[in-house]
Specification:
about 30% strand; four-stranded antiparallel beta sheet; alpha+beta; 3 helices; five-stranded antiparallel beta sheet
């Protein structure tokens, strides 16, 4: 499950996907118009211009110093200005990287106020919590994510195993998963066996990792597990 929250504040201008759509990693989900991003672009271009000017000034001062035309103080001042300009430029580049925007993209796009929200995983859009024209903010930590993406192509199946049966199981034990009416849904092996027993349920967890490309196993449902641990023996059990 991927909960996609905004990396930058803005207003929703357009959707590229909505609930029920299948998306691949990196696909666009929404377009935000962001004043914050526009300000960052302005700051970056200004810092880049200052860094270029400081570099030119330093090169000129070094040439003059080589010919003994300028003073050492002017050369040191140019070097300090160049270092400060580059530090400021790197700081703004780090801010851009934090919101997922490259400096090259800002230079290539006319409208640097547009921010694309993309999906970090492939899957199905399970939930969309915003509408066109709605403002979203990174300041509100309690707000819902913009999108929820679910990839159920591989699922975990957690089996509740009674404590007296745990000793019969181990890594790699084969398991048949069936519905309540006995329909075979999948076959897998135990990939993880919890070393502790839950104090309330008195069961341990055995986890299966199951390929689910056809979507037959839906997260949240209950299954039955049939586990063969050896020869069967008929016994009488009295409650």
């Amino acid at each position: 499950v991927a909960k996609v929250s905004p990396q930058i504040s803005g207003v929703v201008k357009r959707f590229y996907a909505t609930e029920g759509d299948r998306v691949d990693r990196g696909n666009r989900l929404a377009l935000l118009a962001s004043r914050e991003l526009a300000d960052l672009k302005s700051d970056y271009l200004s810092a880049e211009s200052s860094a270029d000017l400081a570099q030119s000034t330093l090169a000129r001062e070094e040439a003059l110093w080589a010919d003994r035309i300028t003073s050492e103080a002017d050369l040191l001042e140019a070097r300090a200005a160049y270092s400060a300009a580059n530090s400021n430029l790197r700081a703004i580049e780090n801010k851009l990287q934090a919101v997922g925007v490259s400096a090259s993209r800002l230079r290539s796009e006319e409208n640097g106020a547009n921010f694309l929200v993309t999906t970090p995983i492939s899957g199905v859009v399970l939930q969309r919590s915003v509408s066109i024209g709605e403002a979203v903010s990174t300041e509100d930590a309690s707000s819902e994510p913009l999108f929820m993406i679910v990839d159920s192509s591989v699922v975990w199946v957690d089996l509740a195993v009674f404590k007296q049966d745990v000793s019969y199981l181990g890594m790699g034990t084969p398991v048949r998963l069936t519905s309540e009416d006995g329909e075979l849904l999948a076959e897998a092996e135990i990939a993880f066996l919890s070393p502790i027993v839950d104090e309330t349920s008195r069961t341990a967890t055995a986890r299966l990792i199951v390929e689910n490309a056809d979507g037959a196993l839906r997260p949240g449902r209950f299954l039955r597990a049939q586990i063969d641990i050896g020869e069967s023996v008929s016994v009488i059990r009295i409650p």
